[in-house]
Design brief:
By secondary structure, the chain is mostly helical. It is built from 2 helices and no strands. The protein has helices at 11-29, 35-87.
């Protein structure tokens, strides 16, 4: 015996199922990133990398400049002290 399929389809049931499927798809889409969001994130990451590189370069400059200026200042103060003691003997 084979079961016979009904010839008429319950349209309300089909619409209900479509609505359920649409809701599930909306919920699933919330977990994914769109192409536009992905491109925006990629650009932002690129900009952040450029900023980090700029900070590293400025840090290297300050890292070199600060000790050099400190050494020059110490040399000048030492010279002035020596000259002061030499002239006030």
């Amino acid at each position: 015996m084979t079961e016979q399929k009904p010839k008429t389809i319950n349209t309300e049931l089909i619409y209900y199922m479509f609505d359920e499927i649409k809701l599930e798809l909306r919920e699933m889409k919330k977990d994914y990133v769109t192409k536009a969001e992905s491109a925006a994130l990629k650009n932002e990451i690129g900009e952040l990398r450029n900023e980090i590189e700029a900070l590293k370069k400025s840090r290297n400059l300050i890292g070199w400049l600060y000790p050099t200026a400190s050494a020059a200042f110490s040399a000048i103060v030492t010279y002035l002290l020596l000259e002061f003691f030499r002239t006030h003997k």
